[in-house]
């Protein structure tokens, strides 16, 4: 190994250790999901975090542990009201009851309320049968059906069967009783794509360290990553066949990249002055032959 490579590896090692140390310090200093609530100066939070009534207290706790709190999406974003005033009557004065058709959390209005931030998902959702049924009846699924108010969770594949089966079953048959299982398989494929991307990413790092040409495999990783980034919006179209095709294309790209790396030989490091050494060696050989 040359001095240059030794310095490069030493620098890479030092940089990696420093990054890992910073990550550890961040996790030690900042608790998971922690939010500087006081800095928001939001009366909804200031009041509800101290309320003792069971339901409001539980709702606040679910929100404080959710991804919305991490991004400072507070109560007023969904419920309305005025977070800049300090009395309950003033803060709630513009709020509508959940049964009021003008309320942002009235069942028909929930998609538009969520769509203020999640616009791409809303565009996909509007082209579904779920949205059409929601226009007509309260029992149809909306964002809150799957993501649960205040906790705003993202469902795992294992959680889809009981939820989707509430409507998609042999008795009610809104479309097909196979939908819950098909949806479960679709999300499992998305998980598989995530694992394939991680595996390829790790293999690329190892290959780079060995001096391999990874440009072609990197393109495959980029294709697979593009697919996984589009999963949230694609899922909300509820077209499971199209979803499966797209996810499979991402899996194929990631595996293609892995196969390329397994076939590539490490690039031989160039030796400085190698040509000069060859020429000098040739002259030395000719000199010896003439002496003989």
Describe the overall structure:
The protein has 292 residues and is an all-alpha fold. It has two domains: 31-174, no CATH class; 175-292, Butyryl-CoA Dehydrogenase, subunit A, domain 3. The chain contains 17 helices and no strands. It has helices at 3-29, 37-40, 43-48, 54-64, 67-70, 75-79, 88-92, 110-115, 119-125, 129-134, 143-147, 160-164, 179-209, 215-229, 231-235, 240-263, 274-291. The longest helix is centred in the middle third of the chain and has 31 residues, at 179-209. The radius of gyration is 29 Å and the shape is globular.
| Percentage of residues in DSSP E strands | under 5%
Q: How many runs of DSSP E, i.e. beta strands?
A: 0
Number of domains: 2
Give the N-to-C terminal Cα separation. 38 Å
Gyration radius, to the nearest Å? Answer: 29 Å
**Can you tell me the residue ranges where pLDDT is under 50 for at least 5 consecutive residues?**
1-8, 10-18, 20-35, 268-274
Order of helices and strands: HHHHHHHHHHHHHHHHH
What does the largest sheet look like? Answer: none
What is the count of helical runs?
A: 17
Helical residues, percent: 55-70%
From the spread of the alpha carbons, the general shape counts as: globular
SS-based class:
mainly alpha
The overall average pLDDT, rounded, is: 80
